[in-house]
Write a structure and sequence with these properties.
alpha/beta, five-stranded mixed sheet, five-stranded antiparallel sheet, 24 helices, 31 strands
Length: about 775
């Protein structure tokens, strides 16, 4: 009996679904019972329920003719209207019938040979949804910038802090440097590494490498020195374009055998200034220009234990940039934010969308990269109207404080519906998707102000072709999860020096185009309207704070450390967590040693030392049995003054730990760069003091930050005159306050982060208005 099954199996109970199964198939193959009572005429009346017991319930009954011979099967599908609509239910029935007919026609056929799609559905997917094939752009990426410099020579091309340069000036400086690089041997299929901090010089250096015919390799000077060393050696870089500040901070080992071109060295600067500033002709380069030549190499996290470089050719990125400019309405005069790190593929998109459309590229300094308040101030100061930002950073911004922003592109990680709704009301919000291997931008969707459910990643960009396939490379029906394959103009060349890995990911188009498609490893599905929704990954790759991370690379770094015998890395609540087995291991020491080998975003927030890893019956690591990580609580001394007490509270709040001492390290307790920006924002509000994000990294303890506040903090004016609105709007935090209190998670201090003492004359009118607002809003605060 059902009740006995539930009692014995004790499944997890949920109001959202049946406790044992969600789909039922019932076949009625017995004769229909009849009731014959003397003197009474009877007929059966079918009774239908208004509530579905299961997600789907298929009821089938055999039919017989008058002679009792089989005459077919009748069927009924009952579906939950919360999960399916009528169109979707009819599609399921059509697929079910098609599969049943195929099984009857060929009962010995393997399951993978059964195709539920009708020919009309296949044509719709391939010809209407999958995208339009096009020839890649027969041009070099830098040629698009040169053409724009001819059209708008005096327009602002790049702005960084108080510096600016016109299109003519940018093009001329890049030409001079390109000629120096050609003299050093730069040319097609050669690589020039670029390690220049965020500045106009960084843009000049990248453009100059392209003009020389070589491919540029961007290195983030803030990242691991060891990682830079691997990249330089891996690509056999011809030379390293850099500045004095980097050469002084990086050890000689990081530079490998690559000769230096130090841009701010007086001798080098004079050599560059002596070159001609006109565009280079092909006879000045080592070889003629060809759009199939490599334009740049971007490194991503590697599953084989080290980073892997993706080579993108000129025609691929030029095609995607041109299509994106058209799709998002970029034109002369628009002001475009340059936010991403140079080593992150989004930077290529930002830079060249702006410089090929006549826009002004406004570069964000490193200190405001992920700071909500500082980034908001930058957007307002430069009147930026176009930006590409990852959702986790967008969440730090307030829409009402950036009125100039007209177009916002998000990508790199899932876009929460609440965030989409908030920003979709105030600007054009596009959710974008695209891996480095397919030139960054493959699909996009314009968000409505009120998205429902999963935020889609949309439809393919011009010239991009997408397929959603099963394990046998067949098209899957709408609503069914499959792996996303990307083809068309943006597909990259492959991984540098890794032919085997390239062959496994860059495969022949199964639909006979003669081209290649990139196997993304991402699980997606088509909606009934031909829009893509992201579901997850087919492998262990994870996204943390917008970075694509291969746990294998982190595990390899840990295994290289003394004493580590086994290591497993997983994502847990937007934290990277490592589990290690070995002798005499200290969690914090492991994190510090790993930070010397990999970028900070690859360093786990928590390292858990185990006696042994849990295994499945076949000897593999049982990831579901790994213990939940215990976020460490601070014990480093008590606060000695009110300022330290407030900072201890802010640390604990941001890190979600019970308590923090004055000597506890923010990063040792699980902090990372994104949490650090939130801490800066909270400190600004609670202590009315501006603190540089770099201070968190240099002084990551309460005691250290308290000293910074005393010596270097810049106090803002205590009172700012503002116009009081007629009706005070409720914040989201206020709306959920009552509910949180009922759940027992708020506490009476939930919405009182700081008790302030106000001195001076009392404004009785303002006090009366404030108290009236409390009274008027009291009921809504309690009941929303």
């Amino acid at each position: 009996p059902f009740e006995r099954l539930v009692e014995v199996l004790a499944p997890a109970r949920s109001l959202a679904r049946h406790p044992l199964f969600q789909v039922m198939l019932a076949v009625q193959n017995t004769a229909e019972a009849s009731l014959d009572l003397p003197g009474i005429e009877l007929r059966a009346e079918r009774v239908t329920a208004s509530t579905a017991k299961f997600d789907l319930s298929f009821g089938l009954a055999e039919r017989f003719d008058a002679a009792g011979a089989p005459a077919g099967i009748d069927g009924v599908l009952e579906y939950s209207a919360d999960l399916f609509d009528e169109v979707g239910a009819e599609l399921l029935l059509a697929w079910f019938r098609r599969v049943a007919e195929a099984v009857v026609a060929g009962p010995d056929a393997p399951l993978r040979a059964l195709d539920p799609l009708a020919e009309t559905e296949r044509r719709t997917i391939l010809e209407e949804w999958a995208g339009t094939r096009a020839k890649p752009a027969a041009t070099m990426l830098h040629a698009l910038v040169e053409a724009q410099a001819v059209r708008t020579p005096d327009a602002q091309a790049v702005v960084f802090e108080d510096d600016a340069i016109t299109y003519a000036g940018l093009n001329e400086r890049a030409n001079r440097l390109a000629r120096v690089l050609v003299d050093r041997g730069a040319g097609p299929e050669r690589v020039v590494a670029v390690a220049v901090p965020r500045s106009i010089d960084m843009i000049v250096a990248m453009l100059a490498v392209l003009k020389s015919g070589a491919a540029y390799l961007p290195l983030d000077s803030e990242h691991s020195v060891r990682r830079a060393e691997i990249m330089i050696r891996d690509t056999a870089a011809l030379c390293l374009l850099t500045v004095t500040g980097v050469t002084e901070s990086w050890p000689a080992s990081a530079l490998g055998s690559a000769p230096l071109v130090v841009l701010d060295d007086p001798t080098q600067a004079a050599r560059i200034a002596g070159k001609a500033g006109t565009d280079l002709a092909d006879d000045e380069r080592r070889e003629p220009s060809d759009p199939a030549q490599a334009a740049y190499i971007i490194y991503t996290s590697g599953s084989t234990g080290g980073p892997k470089g993706v080579a993108i050719e000129h025609h691929s990125i030029a095609s995607i940039v041109a299509a994106s400019v058209r799709a998002f309405g970029l034109h002369e005069g628009r002001r475009v934010l340059q936010h991403a790190s140079a080593a992150f593929d989004n930077s290529v998109w930002e830079i060249f969308m702006a410089l090929t459309s006549g826009g002004t590229l406004c570069m964000a300094p490193a200190t405001v990269m992920a700071s909500g308040d500082a980034l908001t101030a930058l957007l307002a100061r430069h009147e930026i109207d176009f930006a590409v930002i990852v959702p986790s950073v967008v969440a730090l911004l307030e829409p009402g404080r950036v009125p100039s922003l007209r177009t916002l592109l998000v990508g790199g990680e899932a876009l929460p519906p609440e965030l989409a709704a908030r920003w979709g009301r105030v600007c054009e919000l596009f959710n974008t998707y695209g891996p480095t291997e397919a030139s960054i931008h493959c699909t996009f969707s314009l968000q409505t102000p009120n998205p429902r459910g999963t935020v889609p990643i949309g439809c393919p960009n011009d010239g991009v072709v997408v397929h959603v396939l099963d394990n046998w490379l067949r098209l899957v029906p709408p609503g069914v999860a499959g792996e996303l394959y990307v083809g068309g103009v943006g597909v990259g060349r492959g991984y540098v020096g890794r032919a085997g890995l390239s062959a496994g990911r860059f495969v022949a188009d199964p639909f006979g185009s003669g081209g290649r498609v990139y196997r993304t490893g991402d699980l997606v599905r088509w909606t009934s309207g031909g829009v893509l929704e992201f579901i997850g990954r087919t492998d262990d790759q994870v996204k943390v704070r917008g970075f694509r991370i291969e746990p294998g690379e982190v595990e390899s770094g840990l295994l290289a450390l003394p004493g580590v015998e086994r290591a497993v890395v997983v994502a847990h609540d937007d934290r990277l967590v490592a589990y290690v087995v070995g002798s005499a291991l200290a969690s914090e020491r492991l994190r510090q040693s790993l930070a010397e080998r990999v970028p900070d975003y690859l360093v786990p927030s928590v390292v858990v030392v185990l006696d042994e890893l849990p295994l499945t019956v076949n000897g593999k690591v049982d990831r579901s049995a790994l213990p939940a990580p215990q976020i460490p609580s601070g014990r480093g001394g008590d606060a000695r003054n009110p300022k330290e007490e407030i900072l201890c509270g802010l640390f604990a709040e941001i890190l979600d730990v019970p308590a923090v001492g004055v000597d506890d390290n923010f990063f040792a307790l699980g902090g990372h760069s994104l949490l650090a920006t939130r801490l800066v924002s909270r400190m600004r509000r609670a202590l009315d003091t501006d603190v540089d994000l770099r201070s968190i990294f240099e002084m990551p303890t309460v005691a250290g930050l308290a000293r910074v506040l005393v010596s270097g903090g810049e106090t803002r004016p205590a009172l700012v005159a503002r116009v009081r609105p007629e009706v005070l709007p409720l914040s989201f935090a206020q709306q959920r306050l009552w509910l949180l209190d009922q759940l027992g998670n708020a506490g009476w201090l939930y919405n009182v982060p700081l008790v302030a003492r106000l001195e001076g004359d009392l404004d009785r009118v303002a006090l009366r208005a404030a108290l009236r607002d409390v009274v008027v809003r009291h009921e809504s605060l309690r009941t929303v």
